[in-house]
Each structure stands twice: as C-alpha cells, then as structure tokens.
Amino acid sequence: MFKLLLIISVLITTSFARAPFLSQGLIPHYTKKIAQNWDDSFLELTDKQKIKLIKIRQNTMSALGKIKKTLEPLEKELAAKIIKGDEAETLRNLVKKISIQKIEATMVHLRCVSNTQKVLTKDQLQMLPSL
Length: 131
Description:
Elements: H1 2-15, H2 30-36, H3 47-84, H4 92-119, H5 122-127
C-alpha cells in the first residue's frame, strides 16, 4: 500500500509544470518580466521592440512546448522505474535521454535571453532585475 501511495505521489508531482532547464533560477527570464511590464512607461518599450520581443517569445514558447512533450513522459518513466526497484545503472540511457532534452531546453532559453538582450537598450536591460 505504501509503495502504491509513493508511486502515485511521484507521478502527481512530476505532472506539475516544472521548468525544464539546467541551472534553474540562475538564468534570467527576461521575456516573462517584460510581458508583466509590457506597457510600463518606466520600461518604455517601442513598437519596433515589441514586435521583435513577441516573435522571440513565440519562438521560445513553441520550442519549449515541443521539448516538454518529450521530456515529461521520460521523467515519469524514470520515476516509475526507480520506485518499481530498477537498479540505477539500468536507467543510465533513460537519464541520458532526459538530460539531452534538458540541454535543448536550456539552449532555447539561452538563445531567448541573448536575442532579447539584442533588442533592448542597455538602460532597459539594467532596469529588468528591479521589475
């Protein structure tokens, strides 16, 4: 009974939305902050910047959505197998598949940050952490 509850708990936990990135919390999420302050007179985004930022955000979210569709089942499979009692070494290939997806997601995030930095002015970039 306890094992069944543990399996259910892990599967529920893994089904909640989690960022698929490596180095979580260390890389800024510029587009999220920008979206929250889109029409803020303090940030002063131009119409030209907004068009570019929307495209960056759309490309990023689309790419991450595809990665998450692949990543989530792999993580659930890993959780189920380890709880079932599979030996750690037998899960190496599955862990590699998961890590490859997380690397791809991190690269998408890094490209998003880099592309956003190219669109914003130095003053706008300096302002983002305080928003």
